Amino acid sequence: MDVVRYKPGEAIRWLEVGAEDLRKSARSRSRRVVASAGRRDFTTDLKDAAGALFGLGKSAWADILHKQAEASEFALYDDKFEVIRPSTKRTVRYSDVVAMKLKSEKLSVQLRSGSISIRPHAYVVSGRIKVPIGWTRNEIEVPYETLLNELSARCGVNIETL
Questions:
Q1: Where along the chain do its domains lie?
Q2: What is the DSSP letter of 95?
């Protein structure tokens, strides 16, 4: 059987777009601060400079989240699965999974030694509705729950909802 790879869905690219927008906004704000420095009072200049720095920090954070999401994936094999994250790679045999507990959208996979958490990389929010970003399963977009259900079936362990 071929390897099944789950990567964050295509919608994750909006983090990159958002980071770029935040960066442009912070850049223009910092230019205004430099251009008007000394013309206004010190307190106003300080507030504008702090706001520009905060905007740059938010854009850097969005960049980090995007890069982390792009470098993450789950690879499902016949007898094991791999959790691949930017700094680590963990291989788990299906037979080592003892229990699976779902609380909100976070799945806790209990192993004979330790545990693994699977949670959405991002959400789409519209009004009061919050939906987790799905996955790309071998280049096909699927809902977030698909990975959880397939992992449960391969491990032979039911997901307990808390």
A1: 11-70, 77-161
A2: G
pLDDT tens, residue by residue, 104-144: 899 999 999 999 999 998 888 889 998 888 999 998 999 99
Distance CA 57, CA 140 (A): 33
Q: Does domain 77-161 have CATH number 2.30.29?
A: yes
- Exposed e or buried b for every residue in 100-115, given b needs 16+ CB within 10 A? bebeeeebbbeeeeee
Using pLDDT thresholds of 50, 70 and 90, give the confidence band for residue 41.
Answer: confident
